[in-house]
């Protein structure tokens, strides 16, 4: 707060930062607009049903220099802002269980991976709106203590297709977008223009806000409260572009949410309305640099979730190949 | 046991099945023969240090039909033979923790993934011989209750390179290799011949014994006791071929071991002597079919382990792209 | 099966062993007969609401020789029959996390404690019949992914009162009761007579079948299928005696169940109808010996469950003091 | 900090608060002074070896009003200061796994219980000084990835004996002792005098500093940095009194430690030198009130740790009976 700002200035700035408020009614209209219920023969897979051999072929055709970049945050066993449920990592053997040779070191990993601390994929069972999952399935009836009957990560399988990185730090020429900054549909168009890339039908789209550069320089904060991300007005555009996967270094949603009473509207529009899986909390710092170095923002993209029947998602380590 | 067999016949059969016994002295000579200690500037990464852009480019050049095949067994929460420490999968939210919209379904996963039940990658910290990890690092000093300082899975990074499937059910024209059946160096050469493929320097090599076809048809057994796999005499050949990754539908080792007092000799030669990570317990049934259908046994191969600092490996879901 | 037995003989034996079949209608009448809904001002605590200072005073008055006996099975990390979800026990520090002095050894414990492998207490949220918990609370509405709002173990608190051991191996003069053997109401009366003990209002009642002596001598079996325990006809008697806690070396229910379609009728009658917590899987071998040595079957009894808000029970280590 | 205090005043206050510094040499002399190595035939049980029937009889003789008080903090699944590794509590069944009746609610609990957030018992394997556990056992050789061969919680068994509460909020007539406040040997004598109680040989001793009253009124802080507790000069007095168990609403150690380079000197003197188990993080608020109400500070005390072979301790819910 500079010395000359007033409280009203700040409110105006906040509004400018987060974009226009969207009423619940407007949100519901957006929901109807982008909805693809009934579109897929295997609705548990949603948009990934349409990821086929042609996508893999096109993806492979984008490989020229062979540079590979992975995007998983380190397994984070330290609680703190944004990591209320730290991952577990325990050594279960240090060469003493089996005899005599070889001796084996083994470890246990455990994680409640949704949230803000683990790079992960959201399957279609993760998000329900008004009690309904994608395609109108009742969340209460299909997701129980034994897991998800509908929309499990196993139903998704794996992902091999082209992806586009929209690096908004390049568009805005800032080291990072401030938490709370909304990316608008017009920004997506501007980013395509500036980066010289165009989202194609069937692509994955990754959003870089510079989240982890900011975190490394300024320290950790809790992105549940304040995070750069997409304003809901981006979703009709992304629906039109017929994408298969959306991800970012946040969790795609700008926070605070532009829609009162709905904390994650992009999650709802993507997962519940469009059947579009999300990738949350990707470390896109190296990818941003690679795209700059390679001079292009479209590349082969591979996501290999764990095969967890009934799982609502999976920790993942996505890979770009240039 | 057919009615005309004698106990002596059976013993002879068992010996034939498992291949010749290898004394500890002979094993130690093999160890010295294939050892690559000092070869890599980042010994924690071992053979993966040498996986670079050229491998990714060559891998992508193998993509023609775009068929993708993944290889992870389902997350197995049911204890039984070969799964003494079943994986955990608990629902941590069923739409009740956060209010009001959307409601979220979330789950916790946990696993002590080494063993015979989880498709996983072994990093170089996993196996020590005579107290030493790869490159001579002391296991006791470098792997402690806080994890592996040397040879962690994070040091490996990810893998994008060509892979060859050696499908020994095709070579032997059997639905599967019987547990205990040793694959010999000469079998590898014969498989290359029969399958029309040649392992190139830099490749991953996958071994299909039909393990999971047998399991599906005959039921589960504990492969710790009896499993088809490589006889140690394969390792000088694979060392000569300069491969970067070895995996299979078992854990690469034939069991019982041909070397008395050493339960996993291939693990030692690969990981500890050669710095070669292993992939254990892959479901290669679909891959075998795909290779047959595609008419080729070499393809793009991607492995994306979780980024677990200090981890001795990771559950993975490897992907072949044809 | 002796050589002269026929299949009909076996069926008759099984019927004799397990006691008479009880129809669902008869079961529902029993339910109504023993039901105490509305009796307690804090129905989450059920029968433990009535455990007060007088019980502790009487319990202490039973202490004469000072012999103490505890009853918890060892934490069982080995999967097997009756232990499908083995407990976790991992070392989380071996003197390396904190510097410099002292060095600390630490461990993680984890367990899904219901089942047959862990000595544990069942709180009133554990068992629902026709969707209802004790006092008519809806299980679906009050027990969710965040835990039990009604009938949690924290609502129970701790237990200090007299307990009676009914040692049926003494009554029947056998080393153990065979799995499947039903204990009948008349057996309880006979045991009181033979052991010279009488269940008083406010007591805990412990049932010894010799389960763990049999297990140690004959090996582990899965008591889900076959277990000595109480026939439902015991419950009106126990209700009349106004007991506060029921436990045993099985889980109180004879298995197979005498009531078709209801796998744990004693659980329902105790927990759901009577508001009576249960103690399952206690090792009563030492207690049986102590009662014999002390010449009495009533003693001070202390149960100290973990304070788990929303928990459906707790692993425990109950203590008898003579 | 009152407006008239200076920085020098504060430093003097801090020194006064924490008591005199104790050099490492003085600490080592204290260690030798209170050491009981060689005293017990079962050194894994240490001071609990001496807890026998007479202690239970005397404990029971203290029961007059029958008031019972338990001391376990609630299972804390929320990370925060002092709770970096929050406990796990997941529902594993909500009535859907077993069919048809009854339906069962089940849960998983998991915890790395040492630290400041869980009421727990420290067994003798928990603390090593200069690499040695109690009785001179090598920590490195006896505590490994498979658990503690020496000094496990199972070796301790259970505890039934008299206990004395030393309520220092009464002695100092304050609602709580400020974090950092050292309790001195002379304070113990003064507390005995003021409370009208005398620690007898064989007793447990509980120290109330009002920790949790302060936490409830002022909020959570991390007691690793600042906590009221015993100055090391208390330990010769407690050794002389021949106590069997020491516990408190902190972890017995005043923090910061009076001995540079030794973060938990009371832990060392109690566990490693004296073979005296500790109870950490007990909620003593209700007990303090009960002692005041009952007009006495000595009572029956029962601790029933879980039976974890190889465990370094256990979460517990200790019970006082008046």
Describe this structure in words.
Four copies of one chain form a homotetramer. Chain A has eleven helices and 16 strands. Chain A is of the alpha/beta class and 322 residues long. Chain A has a single domain, classed as 3-Layer(bba) Sandwich (Glucose Oxidase, domain 1). Chain A has a nine-stranded mixed β-sheet with strand order 1-16-14-8-10-12-13-4-15, sandwiched between helices. In chain A, strand 12, helix 10 and strand 13 form a beta-alpha-beta unit. Chains A and B meet through helix 3, strand 2, strand 3, strand 5 and strand 6 of A and helix 3, strand 2, strand 3, strand 5 and strand 6 of B.
Which structural traits does this protein have?
homotetramer, 16 strands, 322 residues, two-stranded antiparallel ribbon, Glucose Oxidase, domain 1, 11 helices
| C-alpha Rg of chain A (nearest Å) | 20 Å
Q: How much helix is in the residues of chain A?
A: 25-40%
CATH superfamily descriptor of chain A: Putative cyclase
- Overall strand count of chain A: 16
Structural class of chain A: alpha/beta
Number of helices of chain A: 11
Q: Based on the structure given, which CATH architecture of chain A is correct?
A: 3-Layer(bba) Sandwich
Largest sheet of chain A: 9 strands, mixed
* Helix/strand order of chain A, N-terminal first: HHHEEEEEHEEHEHEHEHEHEHEHEEE
Cα distance, first to last residue of chain A? 42 Å
């Amino acid at each position: 707060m500079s010395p000359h700002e007033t409280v009203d200035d700040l409110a105006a700035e906040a509004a400018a930062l987060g974009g226009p408020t969207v009423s619940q009614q407007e949100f519901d209209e957006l929901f109807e607009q982008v909805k693809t219920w009934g579109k897929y023969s295997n609705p548990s897979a949603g948009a990934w049903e349409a990821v086929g051999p042609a996508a893999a072929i096109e993806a492979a055709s984008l490989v020229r220099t062979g540079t590979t970049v992975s995007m998983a945050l380190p397994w984070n066993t330290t609680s703190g802002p944004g990591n209320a449920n730290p991952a577990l990592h325990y050594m279960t053997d240090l060469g003493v269980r089996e005899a005599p040779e070889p001796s084996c070191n083994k470890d246990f990993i455990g994680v409640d991976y949704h949230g803000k601390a683990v790079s992960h994929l959201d399957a279609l069972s993760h998000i329900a709106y008004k009690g309904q999952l994608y395609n109108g399935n009742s969340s209460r009836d299909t997701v129980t203590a034994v897991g998800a009957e509908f929309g499990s990560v196993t139903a998704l399988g794996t992902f091999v297709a082209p992806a586009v990185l929209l690096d908004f730090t390049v568009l805005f020429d800032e080291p990072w977008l401030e938490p709370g900054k909304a990316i608008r549909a017009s920004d997506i168009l501007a980013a395509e223009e500036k980066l010289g890339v165009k989202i194609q039908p069937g692509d994955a789209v990754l959003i870089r806000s510079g989240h982890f550069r900011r975190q490394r320089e300024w320290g950790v904060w809790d992105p549940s409260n304040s995070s750069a991300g997409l304003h809901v007005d981006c979703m009709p555009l992304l629906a039109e572009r017929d994408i298969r996967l959306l991800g970012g270094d946040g969790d795609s949603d700008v926070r605070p949410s532009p829609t009162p009473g709905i904390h994650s509207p992009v999650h709802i529009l993507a997962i519940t309305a469009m059947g579009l899986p999300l990738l949350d909390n990707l470390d896109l710092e190296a990818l941003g640099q690679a795209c700059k170095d390679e001079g292009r923002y479209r590349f082969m993209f591979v996501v290999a979730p764990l095969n967890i029947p009934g799982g609502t998602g999976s920790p993942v380590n996505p890979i770009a190949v240039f």
